[in-house]
Amino acid sequence: MEQASETSDGIDHLALAGICHALACADELHFGRILVSLVRICGRIGDVGVAVRVLKLVDWLVSGFVESRRMRKVQVLFEVISPEKCESEGYVLFPAVMAACGGLRALRVASVRHRLDFAPRLKEAPERTIRFAARRAAVEGRPDDDQRRVLLQCVALGLTQCGPVASNDSVLRCVLMALLEELLPLPRLLRISVKSPDGNSAELAKNQVMQHQDSVLFKEAGPVTWVLCNQYSFADEKTKDYVETRQRLQNTGWMQTPQGGSSQRLLLGSWWNSLVWNI
Asked: Looking at the record's lineage, which domain of life comes first (predicted)?
């Protein structure tokens, strides 16, 4: 996965390294408290780059705990980011789901490298958090809901790192929405260009496309598509119909007009192609 920048809205690699060291050395009680604080702080920042670092941090921690046979701390970690805890504590979900993906990745690597057979309940714990976050992200939201947008991206990115998870309709829908709404955000880019206050919509849209091409999700398009295909291959017919319908609607360009009027068929594909070719 593409490396995040060294600083991301006030939290940098040195701060996260310090937190990682504190988590590695803490006893179970303080480990849980520090982890809760980390999830809350990262949730307030709301940055995909920070989320990527959380995944890598948890991957490293869990790998170390497994090698040193400190499995109780792995259990505490998964308890802190469990769906029940996320809901009762009101966490912003994207750090929790990235932690779950990092933990699941570490367990899978360790099971192969050290030929370990973990308890099914332990391996199921992070997948429950992933499904919970995917279900929340898959709920249709406002186009300007930044928290949902970050969560969509994080679920999709996290799944590219942790390996296959059990087939689930919410996970499939979430990854599909990440691809349609965040990887190729044609409706959102069109809304931005139409709302340009100075009438310079083409230049504004061009800048947005260039920024989008530098995003982590855009650079991970191939792995995210693989996740979608893997989930789709095990989905039931109802979920497959939903996926195909959403894709058809996106391809034909149905969307609400920025003024909130009736649906209109907009040639977004042609607009996107002409815009990219003019960059």
From this structure: Eukaryota
CA distances to 86, 89, 100, 159 from 82, in Å: 6, 11, 9, 17
Residue with tokens 């469990």: 82
E strand segments, the chain: 7-8, 11-12, 254-255, 264-265
Of the chain, the percentage scoring pLDDT greater than 70 comes to 74
Read off the tokens for 137. Answer: 């992200």
Determine the 3-state secondary structure of 225 from DSSP: helix
**What's the pTM value of the predicted model, to 2 decimals?**
0.81
- What pLDDT is attached to residue 250? 63
Per DSSP, helices labelled H in 179-236 are 186-194, 201-213, 216-219, 221-233
Q: How far apart are CA 126 and CA 140, in angstroms?
A: 24
Examine the pLDDT at 271 and tell me if it is beyond 80: no
